[in-house]
Amino acid sequence: MKPGKPVATALSSAVICLAAFAVNAQTYPSKPIRTIVPYSVGTPPDIVTRLVADKMTAGLGQPVVVENRPGATGTVGLSEFARQPSDGYTLYNMLLPVSVAPALYPNLQLDFRKIMEPVGQFTWYYNVLVVHPEVKATTVKELVELLKAGQANYSFASGGNGTPAHLSGELFKLQAGVKATHVPYNQFPQGIADLVAGRIQFMFLTSSVSVPLIQSGKLRAMASTGPERPAALPAIPTMVEEGYKDFVVRGWDGLVVRAGTSPAIVERLNAELAKAVGTPEIRARFASLGVDPVSGSPAQFGELINAEADRWSRVVRDAAIKAD
């Protein structure tokens, strides 16, 4: 009988662990849930996360509190997230720039693929190529001709390295064969202010901000980076329509928890996230921001994260992009 004791002990331990998971899932959540947003207050990721967190609070019966931890392409917040236990009480807004961070920071010690478990995606959004009205171009083709002429040193703005605005600009330079100086802004509103003032010539600006500036005549729209023309700007072509193959750049947001979190808790969070995104209030608010609501499984979100990391890492390498 002695040889069987270790097996029995192992089985007992497994049963105890499964029972603990079940109890935790049944009582979850029993306290407030913290959601780390790796960008500052008032930025698009912050706005959409707060909207969703408010709706999830009602469904979960506990406050879902948003905490901003900006810096270093989302890795400041990621470092804080990595220090938390795998109990489902700390969420992280995983978005496109964070998936690119390892390519931008080769010495980064954190491997986001190992420390997180996907919960679900909840947004898609696109950028619009806009120029200051004084730029002597009304189409993408004319802008490329200006850049190739080299008569002026044109600059494009972004909200930081690895953001969709930055990646769109670098992809544009690669595909069009032009030069332009990237100017990353730590304060997103300042970059927009400089663009409107003419100190920056163009930008791939997020739809939620670009549409009102285009409609007021402060900026001129040339193309969108979405897979189809945006509903708010039906006369504006896509970059693909303008002849730029595979030029579909969409930002996205989703929630993740620490790796090792109970599958039952992940399933509960995914269900509550989908419920929140499906409410008429969220759908209407997202529409006003030029944001598309999304819901899907944890596995689908995991596949997106990996695909985007691989795609943009190649762009970072081909364009020799460095963290400024």
Report on this model:
By secondary structure, the chain is α/β, with parallel strands linked by helices. It contains 12 helices and 10 strands. Strands 1, 2, 3, 4, 5, 6, 7, 8, 9 and 10 form a 10-stranded mixed β-sheet that branches. It is globular and about 65 Å long. The N and C termini lie far apart (66 Å). 40% of the residues are buried.
Secondary structural class? alpha/beta
**Largest sheet entry:** 10 strands, mixed
In total, the number of strands is 10
* Average predicted local confidence, pLDDT: 90
- The CATH superfamily of the largest domain bears the name Bordetella uptake gene, domain 1
Number of domains: 2
CATH topology of the largest domain: D-Maltodextrin-Binding Protein, domain 2
- The end-to-end span amounts to 66 Å
**How much of the polypeptide forms β-strand, as a percent range?**
15-25%
Assign an overall shape: globular
Name of the top-level CATH class of the largest domain: Alpha Beta
Rounded to an integer in angstroms, the radius of gyration calculated over CA atoms is 22 Å
CATH architecture of the largest domain: 3-Layer(aba) Sandwich
Measured as a percent range, the helix fraction is 40-55%
Number of helices: 12
Descriptive labels:
324 residues, alpha/beta, D-Maltodextrin-Binding Protein, domain 2, 12 helices
Summed up:
The chain has helices at 5-27, 44-60, 75-82, 96-104, 112-115, 140-149, 164-176, 188-197, 207-215, 263-277, 280-288, 298-318, and strands at residues 33-37, 64-68, 90-95, 116-131, 155-158, 181-184, 202-206, 220-224, 250-258, 291-293.
